[in-house]
Amino acid sequence: LKTAPSLTPSETPTSEEPTTEAPTTPATTPATTPATTPATTPATTPEATPSDDGGIEFPTDPNDPQVDD
């Protein structure tokens, strides 16, 4: 009876080995590829468009009344 429980703990460390290797491979591939490509493309295009519009309209509004004064 004492030999049965001895085999149980021995199988525990074997299960942990394959569990740690599996999440390490897929977690690095999809996390680095999609995060770098879409994050740099959409962040630079939309930011430059609204910045130009707002920047030109802002200085034009305050300048108009200042000249009249």
Fraction of residues in helices? over 70%
- From the N-terminal CA to the C-terminal CA, the straight-line distance is 100 Å
Global morphology = rod-shaped
Rounded mean pLDDT is 55
Strand content: under 5%
What oligomeric assembly is this protein in?
A: single chain
- The number of helical elements comes to 1
Topology, number of strands: 0
State the secondary-structure class.
mainly alpha
Biggest sheet statistics: none
Walk me through the structure.
Residues 1-69 are annotated as: Disordered. Residues 1-51 have a biased composition (Low complexity). The chain is mostly helical and 69 residues long. The protein has a domain at 31-69. 96% of the residues lie in helices and 0% in strands. It has one helix and no strands. It has one helix at residues 3-68. The longest helix has 66 residues, at 3-68.
Key phrases:
mainly alpha; 96% helix; 0% strand; 1 helix; rod-shaped; 69 residues
Give a brief rundown of this model.
The chain has a domain at 31-69. It is built from 1 helix and no strands.
Secondary-structure map:
Elements lengths: L2 H66 L1
